[in-house]
Amino acid sequence: MLDKTSFAIETHHLAKTFSTQAGVIHLFNDLSLNIQQGESVAIIGQSGAGKSTLLSLLAGLDVPTSGTVKLLETDLSQLSDAERSAWRSENLSFIFQAFHLLPELTALENVQLPLDIRGDKQAAPKAKNLLDKVGLSDRQSHYPAQLSGGEQQRVAIARAFVTTPSILFADEPTGNLDAETGENIITQLFDINAQQATTLVLITHDAALASRCNRQFRLEQGILIEGSTKARQVEPNQEINKGSRVGLAE
Amino acid sequence: MITTLALRQLKAQWRRPDGRALLLSIFLMTSLITLLSLTGDRLTKSLTIRSAEILGADMVISSHQPLASGWDQTTPFGLSTTKVTQFTSMVEAQDSMLLSSIRAVDAPYPLRGEIVTEPPHSMDAPSSGTVWVEPSVLSRLNINIGDSVNIGYSSFLVERTLISSPDRGSNFRSFNPHIIMSHDDLAATKVLAPGSRAHYRRLFSGTPEQITKAEQLFRANLKDKQQLYTAQGDQPTRGNAANNANQYLKLSALFALLLGSFSIYLSLRRFSADQRSRTALLMSLGLSRIQLFQLFSIQLFCGWLLAAIPGALLGFGLHNMVLWKLASLLPHPLPALSITSLISSPLLAGGILMIAGLATLLPLGKTSVLSLIRQGNDRPSTHKLLFWLTPITLFIIIAFFVESILFASLLTVSLLLSGLISGLCVQYLIHTLNQRLKSTVRLFPLLTLRIRQQRHWHRLQGGVLTLLLTLMTVLLFARQDMLSEWQGQLPADTPNQFVIDIQPWEKESVTQWLNDHNVSSTLYPIIRGRIESLNGQTIAQAFTNEQRQHNTLNRELNLTWGDKIPAHNTLEQGQWSSADNAISIEQSMADELSLVLGDTLGFRVGSDIFSGTVTSIRGVEWASFRPNFYVIFSPDVIDQLPATYITSFRTNAQQKNLTSQLLKAFPTLTLIDIEQLLLQAQDLINKLSDSASLILLLTLLSGLILVITTLQQDLVQRRFEVALLRTLGASANQARQLDMLEYLLMGLSCGVLTCIMSESLLFLIYTNLLKLEPQLHPLLWIALPTLATVLFSLTGLLTRKALSLPQSYQLLKSGD
Asked: Where are the domains of chain B?
């Protein structure tokens, strides 16, 4: 049942502590989590629980105080700064709460940008294709300022998928949108995710949104608890998940 | 792709006020530096050429004794050389006589500049038996071209009219009508005998290197009473005009560079802060650091092209405007511009942009994608080494540009120091003014908060603006007052005509003539002599090196005698004495040479030696336009020596013809029209200060750009603050009032401080430099605070954007 090569994200005994004036804060200690390729995982928790910090550790953006993170079999901490950046751009994509589109570029150009940076000759058709998928084929030449919030996030989704990443990290992707728009966007996000078989790590505080993922984790007082009140299906790899229920040791 | 993105970003940047401020500061700095360096380059070259033209050579050795014949043959280093003997003599034609300044010259003459004659000539000098004379010689002798004049025992054909000529000599002799003759004819006139008063000069010309080498050699071998002038350096007529002008231009350049660099640095810092999330995004999309570096380099390069090239062009245009203004002071054709001075300014701006860019944008490479997920605490740390290296490198560039590390350091330190002090004063004033508003303004608590929060920027803005406004005010008023007040303060009967060379036998008749024409005047005898000793010690023993440079010791003095102190002098010490060998000396001479009552000075006039004991010290108003003397003898000491007389008087508008009648009646007199000279001086000062004002105005503009840039620095914070106020219930009006109150306080404080500083500086300038009655300028007290407030409000309004309530919510919610 355990096929190690199929893990997209593999963490062992992660710990993250911060020094503040009030003393040392242990955000989490000895946290382990394995996510298989193509799986979608939601991490929910209240504000300040450390969701974003966990995401940044999983994405190799931040360095854990101790423990290891392996993404697609690669230990990013063993890579140089430049190698790490290159690896990330090759394999990871992000969707942010605040969209982060470049205001001086059109929708199409924004989607095209990551391919352009790599020098992909097929950038334009690939970007158009993605914009079609998010239903914005008629908005290609619009600037972000001319798009609604929902449309902007759809452009951001198209941009995230255009590089066909192995892993996609989405940080509160509907946080800046109203419920209905958010719902539509999430549907699109999951559709494309399924088509491209991308591993999705979704950070949210919205339980309904989290329930759309294959697995749900709740980050609470430094402990990652698997399962949510609205789990819709039986987890395929229950045994592994047990190992991930770890929290503060002391 | 990177290029497209960079250009797009640049275009977007242009729409932002801080982007515009960056481009504007590069633009203004380049145009100012171009203007200053081009003008400086041209001015130095022009004044050297002009000086050479006035000297008629690159270097001159002059003496009252015939120069040893050795000079004739010695033309080391391949210099060209020629000799001139200048003397004053009576010339006569058809029973008319005229005292003239005659130059006997060897061909070629002059070595620099040219003699303009009518009809034009193509000769190196007048040929033997002919003379060239100034038009006044013709009119006053009542002769024409082709007639003859007698000089001493020889007769000469007047061949040409002399329109202009270099090498006119200095002192009073240059005011007589000029005549140029051939040196070959000099001996035959028998005008000069041993002991005759004449000026012997040898002129040299060559390349600057040749002149420098020869100058060193000649100076080492210079004999007593021989003097050496060069066109580049010290010379009697021009003083250090070129040097002063250059210092002014350098000072302005330094100011412009400091302001410009600071604006550019601050704009880039702001730019860099804005780029953080964008950089994080681009990096999350796979942009490498090298590509990031390229992205910003292209933007900076394009920004430089956009701003520095037009800036240099504007500078070039302004430079031509200044030249046009100064045209009459500069030689024609103008010396060519060097390529380096033309391209150095845009390059300099590029260098500053690059260094400031590196310091502010390099840390962006350390931006983490993390900042897109977690807002706030992810600020790329500034590079410590770069942070300190930036000002040092900038300073080295600036010092290199103004060509003197000492000058640059002194000025930078004093500018920064005075800026800092003014900044602190402005801050204090704002604080004080704010306290006054406590009970009257409802927004007082918010205003106090704002002032505390913005105090660093207030200090900088206040310091810069106060300093600039003060300089501007002082320049403007000192010039205006110097011209108008000076003339206004002179008594109505201040003489406007000087008459010199009145011979002893003409004394009575000239006095009578002037009396007959209702002109009051006093004639003073003049005897030329030198101070030789003090209390029996030679000058070398009695005085320090510095004292020996004093006017009274390094040249012949005009001595006079009388039986009382002249009415326009004041007695400062001692008593006027008519005792034998008593002398009265002038106050500043006594001070500077440390002379006291009872000291005995030894004099030499020709071959006569005699002495005088100081019995009184007089105050002399040198600007009174009356004959003034350092030394006045009691009667019976030097009366027997040959003297000429000098007087001054005033003619009014109805007496225009009086002077020409006087000259007709007494053809040997020399007349100096002071009013004419004053008008010329006024014209000169006007032209120079107009150019100086233009330069200062541009500097003020760069100062304003700096103020705008500093207002940009906290714009995000200000917008948050306004958004917060708005959502907490403040009306848009109140938010605006808060801003306006802040600008008002800033403007008032800067204005008040500028008033105090300008008035004090003007007071010092009046009392110490211009020697005028100091006066207050009430107009300034209203105008300056108003001007400063308007400037702040305008720049504030340029950067401020009104926020609607929904916008405020959005801003606070998104944190963008």
From this structure: 2-44+243-485+680-814, 60-230, 520-649
